[in-house]
Amino acid sequence: MTSTHENVQPDRSAREAERTRIRDRYLRPSGQRPASSARGLHHTALISSDVERTIRFYQEVLEFPLTELIENRDYPGSSHFFFDIGNGNLLAFFDFPGLDVGPYAEVLGGLHHVAISVEADRWRHLCDNLARAGVDHAVHSEVSVYFRDPDGARIELIADPLGEMYGNKVL
Prior knowledge:
Layout: H1 12-26, E1 43-47, H2 51-61, E2 66-71, E3 79-84, E4 90-94, E5 114-117, H3 120-132, E6 137-140, E7 144-148, E8 154-158, E9 164-165, E10 168-169
Parallel strand pairs: 1-4, 5-8
Antiparallel strand pairs: 2-3, 3-4, 6-7, 7-8, 9-10
């Protein structure tokens, strides 16, 4: 919880009690959960201020292949482009030439970060790529690396398998 003038630390025991209440009310054991109505994440779309710079970063540094570059159907002149992030999932971008969309900002209802699972040996290689490219990054728990893309979006590469978080099943 943040005030505009000072940081206010939440009451951690009250927050844990609230998580417990919500968990007890909504979380069902895996065998008792209904099947999801979704079949997967088709794509997450971020905004790019420079199409070529974004392609160089995601394709050359992170090694996510560019799969398509088309005109945005909703905004003529804008590009919509996609990167393969594995498992049939895509990371997409729009550019909005001529619009002053402003810099990346974390706001309520907005994006905190995108976490992308990679194999453990690729994770180490990609951390090295970030270092060689001069990208400021932070490693946490020896399985997560956080950094910002050229437009400031926070990205995490995590060596945990899909459906796991720090060795715990979350799916």
